[in-house]
Write a structure and sequence with these properties.
The chain is of the alpha+beta class and 525 residues long. The chain is 43% helix and 11% strand. The strands form 7 sheets. The chain has a 3-stranded antiparallel β-sheet with strand order 3-15-6, covered by helices on one side.
Length: 525
């Protein structure tokens, strides 16, 4: 039995005793001298009754408790006390000395995926390189892909640890495929292998019937119109290549690119989907799950995630399915040329840089326990039972094997296979490896919402005119920043690495698309 498994077993015994003896184990606890302040309780959620979660998912979402995880951690760390603090604005809390000990790399007016660069650059995260290197061999983090760790680095130093992991997939209904007579090569009502955006549109057209309130998919509108459009753009064009381009003057990092002629495939897809009735759209659909799950009006939900614990089983029951497997997942359709969309998304958690050495040490122990140690065995797999998988949970699956993980009975094996396929596929060079990031990414979406809503309402309108106006505004008020210490050499290194990547791994895409973009738009040095 490995050291890690023995530790998990020990913690399991402690937990059972703690619950069975109503907390008497802790009656004579050591005086706690160090406090770790946490905001919210999503990192503490205990593993719920699996059958209960599946049978009554909606009601159980708000019922998850924190006692077991908290009690076990404090038992293992008798001088540390975990204290909840109220929500607040991070910069204000840091200035006033009331900030939590650890927090996610989001909010504070920065981006989500690549925000560690900004957090480190602005002094919002502690340099934790020594902690990571000291505990590397003993932790499960060594099982995580480098692409997750790259999001934690700034100038060769670690400022965070991976907290969650997922890859975007499509969730779809097999019963509607069967009714429409659509089967894959194995005779299953499923999407074809190596399917394309043309396949996606064709399936949606065949399935859609507005009279029966059925459509293929949703185009989100309102406040999330741009987010939806950008996601479809990544399907087509290689992970945001159609959103920004490098600034040829070198004054800023990036300029708007979404008003270029290269956006035409995405615009055409939107137009054909709307005019053919293959999609449903509008301001009321700010979530693709609304049309897919709640209203049951769409065949598939894009921008979904590999792990949703019992959610698939809940959907299957709520949809009145007659047998298992009505809800399945698939990788995104192949984009322009022959590229596989395998964007890896992961959250990052860092440590408050204003802590004392003793407080930082205790906070690091908390992160190890919660995210990559025994504590994760008692945590829910996701923040609210819905979206991202804990990074440490995936690491444990690799270490222990899926059958040994609590809840594995409700994670379809196919989902694990999809995740491994995408994680093992060649990944596009991430911007953080080159000290780059799209600053104010959420603000960019906010400005882009208006022209995309115009496209939804006027599919035959002059969308390029609207995108031109938006690009001019975005360049003035959103992309008018530059990451300190970055220059044209970083731009050159990044786009050269992307060129080499596509030439090797997606030769058709490189020949027909990327090589032209590289020469006409990206090669500005």
């Amino acid at each position: 039995m490995s050291k890690f498994i023995r530790k998990v077993f020990l913690v399991s015994v402690i937990t059972i005793l703690a619950l069975g003896m109503s907390g008497t184990i802790f009656a004579q606890e050591t005086k706690r001298t160090v406090t770790v302040k946490i905001q919210g309780d999503f990192l503490l959620r205990d593993w719920p009754d699996v059958e209960g979660l599946v049978d009554n998912y909606s009601a159980s979402r708000g019922y998850w408790t924190t006692g077991t995880s908290l009690a076990v951690f404090e038992y293992l760390n008798p001088t540390v006390k975990i204290e909840y603090i109220g929500a607040g604005e991070l910069l204000t809390q840091l200035a006033g000395g009331t900030a939590p000990s650890t927090y996610n790399a989001s909010g504070a007016g920065v981006t989500w995926i690549y925000s560690v660069i900004e957090y480190a650059n602005k002094g919002l995260f502690l340099d934790i390189t020594d902690y990571v290197e000291k505990d590397w061999d003993e932790s499960l983090y060594k099982n995580l892909p480098n692409s997750l760790w790259s999001r934690c680095l700034y100038r060769g130093r670690y400022y965070g640890v991976p907290s969650s992991i997922s890859v975007p997939v499509i969730t779809y209904r097999t019963d509607w495929l069967e009714e429409a007579g659509i089967f894959n090569a194995k005779g299953e009502p499923a999407v074809p292998d190596n399917w394309t955006m043309d396949d996606l549109l064709a399936i949606a057209k065949k399935i859609s019937n507005p009279k029966e309130m059925r459509w293929g998919y949703t185009f989100r509108g309102g406040a999330r119109a741009a987010e939806s459009f950008r996601a479809y753009a990544t399907m087509f064009a290689g992970l945001n290549n159609l959103i920004v381009r490098p600034d040829p003057t070198g004054e800023y990092n990036f300029r708007a690119f979404f008003n270029s002629p290269e956006i035409k495939p995405v615009v055409d897809f939107y137009r054909e989907s709307i005019k053919s009735g293959a999609c449903i759209y509008g301001p009321e659909y700010t979530s693709t799950g609304t049309a897919f799950q709640t209203h049951q009006r769409t065949w598939m939900q894009p921008f979904d995630w590999v792990f949703h614990t019992g959610r698939e089983s809940f959907w299957q029951k709520s949809m009145g399915a007659g047998g298992p497997g009505i809800v399945r997942m698939a990788v995104y359709p192949l984009g322009l040329g022959d590229q596989l969309h395998n964007e890896l998304r992961g959250g990052v958690v860092g440590i408050n840089p204003t802590l004392s050495k003793e407080e930082a040490d205790a906070t690091w122990e908390w992160l190890k326990y919660t995210l990559c140690g025994p504590g994760v065995m008692y945590n829910a797999m996701t923040a609210y039972g819905t979206d991202m998988f804990y990074a440490g949970t995936y690491a444990q699956i690799k270490a222990l094997g899926l059958p040994d993980y609590p809840g594995s009975e409700i994670i379809p094996k196919e989902n694990i296979e999809i995740l491994n396929t995408l994680l093992n596929a060649p990944a596009k060079p991430p911007m953080p490896d080159f000290k780059l990031a799209i600053l104010n990414d959420r603000r960019l979406n906010a400005e882009l919402n208006a022209p995309i809503q115009f496209l939804l309402n006027n599919p035959d309108g002059d969308i390029m005119k609207e995108l031109d106006k938006c690009a001019e505004l975005v360049n003035k008020v959103v992309l008018n920043e530059k990451i300190e210490g970055t220059g044209m050499e970083d731009i050159k290194d990044y786009y050269t690495a992307c060129k080499d990547f596509y030439e090797k791994n997606s030769p058709e895409f490189y020949k027909n698309y990327y090589s032209r973009w590289y020469e006409n738009y990206y090669k500005v040095w």
